Amino acid sequence: MITVHHLNNSRSQRVIWMLEELGLPYEIRRYERNARTMLAPPELRRVHPLGKSPVIEHEGRTLIESAAICEYLVDLAGGRMGAPTGLEDKLRYRQFLHYAEASMMVPLLLKLIIGRIPIMGKMAAKKIQPMITLHLDFVESELVARPWFAGEELTAADVMMSFPLEAARVLAGLDAQSHPHISQWLDTLHARPAYQRALEAGGTYDYA
Which domains does the chain have, with CATH numbers? Predict the structure, then answer.
């Protein structure tokens, strides 16, 4: 049994979604953010020294980092939702598996954090928006050519990309007028039965 240490409104929601897509057995241990600071509670440090989520435990192993967890789940599922066989699709899979956190999530987090600073923070956040728009335009151009990020099938790359794009819709003005293909992609994944089951299992999630 896989144990998911799940923090509300966090990246761990996509781990639950992937588990539902793969049909792997799991249980959830829930943690709530501090309502004032929005930080994870200290109890998570008992699971891993960094005190962050997602964290999973399985067969005596404790794993962190969303992409690493996704790759681990792909291996457990015999390669399902992993890299496609074609070279170009395989390269896109690897690219977006890591791009989600290494590139796209960075300006979104900056905008979220800086935007909470009175007056000057909001002014600085406006300067970050063009960086976010640059990423959204790139992602939109990728989804013009294919229904999923690595080709014709849902993969772990889509799971990884879900959180930054959900956050962009809430925090950075992503909508159907400015980026119709991203918006359609989000609507499609949100309608998937496994995604809906993950929402039920994970509880309140402000980005869906």
Answer: 2-81+194-202 (3.40.30.10), 87-192 (1.20.1050.10)
